[in-house]
Amino acid sequence: MYCEFTMRWQIFSCGIFALTAALGQAQSYPAKPVRFIVPYPPGGATDIIARSISGKLGAALGQQFVVDNRAGGGQKIGTALAAKSPADGHTMLLVSVTHSINPALDAKLPYDSVKDFVPVTLIASSPNAVVLHPSVPAKSLHDLIALARSRPNQLIYGSGGNGSPPHLTAELFKSLTGTRMTHVPFKGSAPSVIALVGGQVDLSFSTVAITLPQIQAGRVRAIAVTSPKRSAALPNLPTLREAGPANMADFESQQWFALFGPAALPRETITRLNGEIMRWMESAEVRTRLSAEGAEPGQLTLEQFAAFIRSDATRWVKVVKASGATAD
Asked: What angle do CA 160, 165, 166 make, to 5 degrees?
């Protein structure tokens, strides 16, 4: 009886100790400055979002959050560095949809996008838009599909580069509609949109965040968005799910920005960072700012976000294999 009681007490004591340690860790986090690795140069959308969030988190959690730009290799250099960092919440990774695409384009990545990271927060997303030069005689998605089928390889679409999200979105569109169009890659999405406005290309599948000013000015014509639901910035535009053929019922392609941590990051740290960021994203100030730029705040729970990341990675593997796309 004594031995049994002693054993039960030891188990209970161990449980209490573990719970106390976890609570202590959560309450003491962060214990030092936190580094946000951004695998892109300063000034881009991911960098801007990282700097906005780091300032808010620093004020809320009482420690400095520092953005560390580690550009190069299509975000591989910075991502590999984050994967090898201690899983204590003091080194985090802020990336875009390219995080899900890279494994499909490069089988020799120095990290595993799924196994080496844990998703923390989907921060924001922006749908791609099917955008045409005004000279293209198509007023709807149905018109565009019919036109492309009648003129194989004659319509030219631009993108931000081989293997970029707009390029793969177009490849997915082509495979589902049975159309053939000619791809012209540019060094970035901005130059591709400039080419669209100038009439050097006929259409693009760039993000609403980039094309919105040109759409509003009437320099280009938008006919649909690629997100599951309509864009708040362009509420009159149908989605491809609405306007496309039946096999587009599950079509989805969005530019997203999200925070990840090393795989063994404690659940308490994940929950705390997620909660603080979500509170900030729910503010009217942030929603107004994102809406003006054609983006929307992330609204997924941790479980939903984890499922979304898995499905997104699977989607792009299929598209890359079917199209034979390669990275620049």
From this structure: 60
Taking alpha carbons only, the member of 67, 97, 103, 104 closest to residue 82 is 67
Strand order in the sheet with 117-127: 65-69, 34-38, 91-96, 254-262, 117-127, 296-297
pTM of the model: 0.84
CB 37 within 8 A of CB 86: no
Distance, C-alpha 45 to centroid of its chain: 11
The single residue listed with the structure tokens 């960092």 is: 85
Residue 2 burial (10 A CB sphere; 0-12, 13-18, 19+): exposed
- The reported pLDDT for the residue numbered 27 is 60
Q: What is the DSSP string of 82-127?
A: HHTS-SSSSEEEEEETHHHHHHHH-TT-SS-TTTTEEEEEEEEEEE
Q: 């936190």: which residue's tokens?
A: 34
Q: 176 with 248: CB under 8 angstroms?
A: yes
Is 126:205 a contact under the CB 8 Å cutoff? no
**Of the listed ranges 38-52, 207-221, 234-248, the one predicted with least confidence:** 38-52
Burial of residue 6 (number of CB atoms within 10 Å: 0-12, 13-18, 19+) = exposed
Cα radius of gyration (the chain): 22
Residue 252 zone, left/alpha/beta (φ > 0; ψ -120 to 50; rest): beta
Question: In this predicted model, what pLDDT tens digit does every residue of 136-185 receive, in sequence order?
Answer: 999 999 999 999 999 999 999 999 999 999 999 999 999 999 999 999 99
